[in-house]
């Protein structure tokens, strides 16, 4: 990866951890997981999500890292290189191509939601949460959604932030800031959790999230939970693969993966607890959908001591977490363009930036002017992009990567990269070759009505 010039200045393991944790921790944990839990019946969703992280997410994250570290290239050329090395069809490169496209599609809506967060920083700074009631908070959020101008403005700012970093190369220093900011995010979350414990309804929240209720498990919620495991860990589209080349040979892929996955999952569940305890205490609807955190958190910030400052800090940290994730959504494509054409990094960032920005315009309008435009299954533009990427493209990408690493690559090469003892390697192989592909395929087949 020619655009990461200073790799050697860093303890390699730490660099990789920060970059990959930066990609994984983002709106998926703070915005999406909490509302998905509510929309999909609470504890049933949490259970399937956590199982998916352990049985499918962790093994496949290891797979994606090993593919990246071995290939040392963008996903498309990288998978092609590995396929040729294994004397298999170079058509496998389209798997990399699919991942790149998936990343751009995700960024199309990710940037709009990132824009909501930026809008909320400005709200928090202006002190508008102070003593806010639940109704006012909901009305506030609805007003934001109803304003195409505001949504487009903040979406544009977020795209500019993302593309300006990408234009300079991912090693521009942003990842280093993670060093402080991820722990800071955890710290502020603990403050929030403390407040929720004393003022909210933690007991109901806890039951809602963790008391097993199998009756609420439906095929769609299983697919959503599995898909969200991919989304949350940034799997299935090549981001982790590109970052895999940060990692030097002597570092354990397994251990690093487990740390990242645990931090990512824990963060999401803690946000969930803090939110639901406020939701139940304020008699808000747990299934409010994508607006959930924007409707609930201002109530906490508006009433807790020092809430003004804590609110500003919180939304700043969330914006930062979203920023380090959004970069990883475009990086695979940028790397591919730079390594294959004469187009320079700056120009590539500009071209992709404009294309994704346009997609985001359509997404922003789907919250107001274009609300009633349905694409498929009665889903609007935002919902279509979200479902298509999280529940179809990411799991499909992960499934194919698992099959590629498990059945097409040379087993010795794989073992060399993972560098595990025999027993652990066997475990990974069972997960990668059987559990993950069968689980993903079964969910797909079930939904297509092919198995009952
Ligand atoms: N994992 C990121 C988040 O949770 C989103 C993401 C998905 C980033 C896929 C890269 C690839 O916010």
Task: Briefly characterize the structure.
With 452 residues, this protein is mainly alpha-helical. It has one domain (13-447): Hydantoin permease, CATH 1.10.4160.
Q: What structural class should be given to the helix and strand makeup?
A: mainly alpha
For the CA atoms, what is the radius of gyration?
A: 21 Å
CATH class: Mainly Alpha
Mean pLDDT: 88
Tell me what the structure shows.
By secondary structure, the chain is an all-alpha fold. Helices cover 76% and strands 0% of the residues. It is globular. The termini are far apart. The structure holds phenylalanine. Residues 23-24, 26-29, 106, 231-232, 234, 237, 239, 325, 328-329 line the site of phenylalanine. The site of phenylalanine has 15 residues, from helix 1, helix 2, helix 10 and helix 14.
List descriptors.
452 residues; single chain; mainly alpha; disordered N terminus; Hydantoin permease; globular; binds phenylalanine
Layout of strands and helices, then pairs:
Blueprint: H1 12-24, H2 27-39, H3 43-71, H4 75-85, H5 93-125, H6 134-146, H7 148-168, H8 174-199, H9 202-210, H10 219-232, H11 239-243, H12 253-281, H13 292-303, H14 307-340, H15 345-365, H16 381-408, H17 411-418, H18 422-447
Phenylalanine (PHE) binds next to helix 1, helix 2, helix 10 and helix 14.
